[in-house]
What we know:
37% of the residues lie in helices and 22% in strands. It is α+β, with helices and mostly antiparallel strands. It has one domain (6-188). Helix 1 (6-58) packs antiparallel against helix 2 (67-79). The chain has helices spanning 6-58, 67-79, 166-169, and strands at 63-64, 89-98, 103-112, 143-152, 170-177, 187-188. The chain is elongated and about 80 Å long. The strands form two sheets. The chain has a four-stranded antiparallel beta sheet. Strands 1-6 form a two-stranded parallel ribbon. Residues 13-54 form the TadE-like domain. This is TadE-like domain-containing protein.
Amino acid sequence: xxxxxxxxxRRRGSVAxxxxxxxxxxxxxxxAVLDVVDFLRVSLRLERTAGETANVVAQYQxxxxxxxxxxxxxxxxIAAPYRVTDTDGVVxxxxxxxxxxxxxxxxxxxxGSSGYASTFGAQGGSATIPRGSAxxxxxxxxxxxxxxxxxxxxxxxxxxRFLAGEPFTRLQSFALQRPRMVSILRVSAP
Length: 190
């Protein structure tokens, strides 16, 4: 005599069928959660890269043209394994100052892809302070150093259909620092 009754077999069969129907949905949901975690990890790495690079720039006593290669190398090392100074992104370092007629971009250097425009403006033009840093106001004679990091991130294959919008693929972070020495608001020759 069989230890299982016919009702038990039908119940086991319906559980297997339900699992077969629900498993792909659970797998897709699990991959989407992992992709969101990856998105957060990349975002935090970009924030760290921008913050630490801006902090290092702000500590210079005299900023020379030759120093930018070192600064961009530093940014690339902090952001690794994400290639922010290559074709996947760009690092933009700018010097801002208020010389009496509002904030302007005194100088700007970049490394990486050319497909990104600085949020703060272009060299020689008026500086636009983004909403996220509304507490920054430059009085006449004051300056700031800005590091922006842009990166293109590819969502994973299965979650790409759900997380393929601009906020999940084109990431950006910036950091503002007041320089310790006013002299770095000018870039000296090599």
